[in-house]
Amino acid sequence: MAHVKLVPVGAPRAEALDAAAWARNSAALAERERLLLERRAKVQAGWGATYAERVHQKGKLTARERVERLRDPGTDAFEVGTFVNFGRAFGKLESPAAGVVTVFAKIHARWCVVIANDNTVASGSWWPRTPEKIERAQEMARRLRLPVVYLVDCSGLYLPEQSQSFPGAKGAGHIFKMNALLSAEGVPQIAGVFGDCIAGGGYMPIISDRVYMTEGAYMVIAGAALIKGAKSQQLSSLDIGGPEVHVHASGCADVRAPDDETALALIRADVARLPGSAADYYRHGVDAAEPHFAADELEGLFPSDHRHTWPVAEVLARLVDRSLFKEFLPERGREIACGVARVGGLWTGFVANRQGVVEDAELRDGARPAGILYKEGIAKTAAFSRACEADGIPIVWLQDIAGFDIGVEAERLGLLGYGSSLIYANSTNKVPMYSVLLRKASGAGYYAMCGLPYDPVVQLATPLTRLSVMEGRTLAIATYRTKLDADFEIAATDPEERAKLEQAMKDTEARIEGDMDPYKAASQMDVDEIVRLRELRPWLVALVEMAYQATGHRTVKNPRIWSLHDLDALVEPR
Amino acid sequence: MFKKLFIANRGEVAVRVARTARAMGIRVVGAVSSADRGASWTRELDELVGVGSGPPRESYLQQERLVQAAVQAGCTALHPGWGFLAENARFAALVEAHGVTFVGPAPRAMDLMGLKTPAKRAAKAAGLPTIPGSDGPIRDEAAALSIAREIGFPVMVKADAGGGGRGMRLVRREADFAAAWHAASSEALAAFGDGACYLEKYVERGRHVEVQVLGDRHGRAIHLFERECSVQRKHQKLVEESCAPCLDDATRARIGALAAKLAASIGYAGAGTVEFLRGMDGSIWFMEMNTRLQVEHPVTEERTGLDLVRLQLEVAANQPLRLAQEDVKPTGHAIEVRVNAEDPARGFAPSPGTLEAFDIPLDAGPGRVRVDTHVAAGDEIPPYYDSLLAKVVARGATRAEAIETLVACLSRAKVVGVRTTIPVHLAVLASREFRSGDYDTGSIPGWKE
To answer: Whole-angstrom Cα distance, residue A112 to residue A537?
Structure first.
């Protein structure tokens, strides 16, 4: 039958892992997740209650309150870029979430990307990386053809740091190029102008299909202060670029609204005029369903020590509908699990790094560690990736990988070539791909598994993520290789010299360890969001549904004619 | 219509489904465990596939094996019967994923009705009266107590994931609340890994009334009127009848319409049962919905002249319901008793063994007798499965006539080799309480253990 024969995967919690390991893993993770929640709350508070109060006094809502009122009641919103600029100081100031909230939210049952300047952080001005964060959200919308809603309330660039956010390829002006590209590709954009929108903030709404303005809002190329300086005129910014001017005289905005609530209601009504989601059509008559084994149980499955293993089937069982999964080519390239399942009722491809020990394809009865890539696994992944591309199945990459196999045998087998074939496949894929850095994301393995340089639409991290070219210890050895003996022990005999070298190696290791921190990666936008393990399934349900929302822009084959069946047909026993 | 049907079940229900299917020209493939191989009832099936050894978890609960058997035998539909996997949504999804039609509702409907809290919410949304209680499970004792005070004692404390009486406590006075809460909660934690419980007002001297519903895959649903199953022993039904003696015609029509409305509101396709509890004061409350064909469905068939298995198969093949609500016109009265291989004198302990004689007369009057069974004299009753031997249904023009017929039949019934529940049934049928209709689910009328 040309249909995918899903089979049950996973086992109840008690059979999947012994209670002691479960308790240990959960406890270690709980500590890290507590930190995540604490940091998230801190970022979401912006500059704090005083600034929120200031916004309220002007009769306005804060950026986060606006997003709350915009989205469908009772639905979850999925924020990206929470930790951009996390831990980074500009003089005495910090810029929580880089002063802009970017979030996937459902409006009238349609997933939208909402980009809201945070008016509790320096009046929504743009910090270093704020433009990049906005452009990243625009790019996600472009790739998925999701409507974009801009909630603009931005006093322009944060000028003391202008050199970092103005001139570069991803400088603030690139936001408007993205506005133009989205428009050119037919992605709906709606803007609400809620406050001071000066310079860049003034440009951001204009390309949108519809522009709503509240009575207190204005858009200007230059504000009153600058005009006073340049032209000695006494005017308010509202006189220069308020709704009286832009709705009625200039035509740069379309509709005036008395207040934030009314503007948001008008924007919601506009989204409702767009075509509805096609996701239910692509469910092919099958309803969305929860995993048979609760997704919350992911919290006990991962040892926090990255050298310890976890069962891939149990993880997949807690991510996919009814814990039903179909693995492709399960007997070959065992270090990788490739397969399809439904997520929220929609077909999704999974590529996951199997952990532990697998059989050695090159050596009869041999075994070798998984969690790295060998020839067959790479070839299988490339074939699977291409098949998903041909069939229009979004791919989720679940990474916990130490890298490629190395050594004489690896080179002789041509891993460089096989790896490049996989790189080529992933690079040219147009199907939406999402990567999840479960734990290790190391070296070329991170690239082969569709790490950020390969343009996944969204890349998620967990509190366990370690992102690096190599582990700290390995790098310390590589750095001081000339001073080590054949067993990588310090060669010097002089105690003082030994101590110095020991300290230097320790420092290198510690620095790399610090760099692997997911918050650092999130701060510099190497991952889009850090999520709790129990949040992973809801995230995937949302992301996959987004991939099937719009019709007409990408291939979605019906499962009857999947090229995946060809792979399957050739390996099925005759 | 399907050409070949797989029955993922055994015994009486396998025979019941096979009879209708074969009458419809459908070939029937049965699953059999090694303990059932060679049993006389398997002769009612066209083909047999072995699915494992005697214990159900080695055979009739082996999901993948059953699906594989259905596919390999070339079946295009699978009937789950009742019990075993009949209400397992994951199994239904697995069956459908392999291109085999599951004869039952969509897995989503099973999910919804399989858990107490979502089921109650759906019923409430459809306008059914639900027993006052907590909206969902609670973990906090103080919160639970304040809800208990609000709805008033007596209250029931029940585990959300519970069943079969586990994690269930009746609390009559506030003073007993703390102890009952702790007992139920820790029992629930031990049994289901979750100590959350919900609260419900306890309905004193309740009567069990259920409505048979039937929905198609095009959004329509009708009801086939009610059954009363108030003669129970520890939540196990012993006697079922229709009409329900405890209802008047107006209530009968009202709960029928409500049940059909619930079915339609959740897009329910196939045969299902909406259970209600009737309080002493005549109040009616939604209890739960069973998303399968019920053991006691012959009671409804006898009064309506409909074949529920045929209707199930038609709905599964996407046929729109041909019946309109006003086409359903039940007549007379029907009573069913479950003849189980159990020893009433020894706490209804299972009584397996070899049937030396098994004869239930069909010619007992004045009404009509129907016997649904899968056993015959000479059969071995294996110890692995439920103890049902036969369902004896009597139909009469009136309730009195149905009782008289059933008494006549059971008095002449000859079952030798195992102990049965027939003496209990005769005692119930003879009792003043049963005859007058004045009894409840708390005890068996006319029988003292």
So the answer is: 19
- The closest alpha carbon to A140, from A525, A537, A397, belongs to A525
Q: What is the pLDDT of residues B156-193, one digit of tens each?
A: 998 766 555 566 888 999 999 999 998 888 887 777 66
A560 at B interface, C-beta within 8 A: no
Closest CA to B106 of B30, B215, B7: B215
Gap between the Cα atoms of A124 and A202, Å rounded = 12
Q: How many CB atoms are closer than 10 A to CB B313?
A: 24
Is A291 touching B (CB cutoff 8 A)?
no
Neighbours of A232 (CB within 10 A): 7
Burial class (CB in 10 A: 0-12, 13-18, 19+), A136: buried
Q: Please give the residue of chain B at the shortest CA–CA distance from A559.
A: B97
Question: For residue A126, what is the DSSP state?
Answer: B
SS (H, E, C) B382-434: CCCCCCEEEEEEEEECCHHHHHHHHHHHHHHCEEECCCCCHHHHHHHHHCHHH
Tokens 């039949």: give the residue: B409
Which residues between 300 and 329 in chain A have a beta carbon less than 8 angstroms from any beta carbon of chain B? 321-324
**Full-model pTM:** 0.90
Q: Do the beta carbons of residue B116 and residue B198 sit within 8 Å? A: yes
d(C-alpha A150, C-alpha A351), whole Å: 34
Contact A536, A399 (CB under 8 A): no
pLDDT band at A23 (very low <50, low <70, confident <90, very high): very high
CB spacing of B107 vs A322 below 8 angstroms = yes
Separation in Å, CA of B98 to nearest CA in chain A: 5
Instruction: Measure A353 CA to nearest chain B CA, in Å.
Output: 26
Render pLDDT for A161-175 as a digit per residue (tens, 0 to 9): 888 888 899 999 999
CA-to-CA separations, A398 to A319, A457, A527, A533, in angstroms, rounded: 11, 14, 14, 12
Q: Quote the pLDDT of residue A293.
A: 96
CB contact under 8 A, B99 and A1: yes
Mutate to test the interface with A, among B71, B90, B266 (most CBs of A within 10 A): B90
* Cβ distance of B93 and A286 shorter than 8 Å: yes
Any B CB within 8 A of A7 CB: yes
pLDDT bin (cut points 50, 70, 90) of residue A506 is: confident
> Measured between alpha carbons, how far is A337 from A381 in angstroms, rounded to an integer?
9
Residue B16: active-site member: no
Structure tokens given for B386: 């439920």
Distance from CA of A243 to the nearest CA of B (A): 45
Query: Which residues of B lie inside 8 Å of A (Cβ-Cβ)?
Result: 63-64, 89-90, 93-94, 96-99, 106-108, 111, 193
Report the DSSP pairing between strands B207-215 and A458-461.
unpaired
Residue B194: pLDDT over 80: no
Helices A173-184 and A130-144, interaxial angle, to 10°?
Answer: 10
Tell how strand A367-369 and strand A357-359 pair up. Answer: antiparallel
A460: closest CA of chain B, how far (Å): 29
User: B225, B325 in Cβ contact below 8 A?
Assistant: no
Q: Is the dihedral of CA A214, A220, A223, A229 positive or negative?
A: negative
Mutate to test the interface with A, among B76, B98, B121 (most CBs of A within 10 A): B98
- Cα angle value B315/B320/B323 (rounded, 5°): 95
Contact across the interface for A8 and B193, Cβ inside 8 Å: no
Query: From the list A13, A287, A292, which residue is nearest B106 (CB)?
Result: A287
> d(Cα A131, Cα A168) in Å, to the nearest integer?
10
Which of B252, B292, B338, B419 is the catalytic position? B292
Taking the CB of residue B442, how many other CB atoms lie within 10 A of it?
A: 10
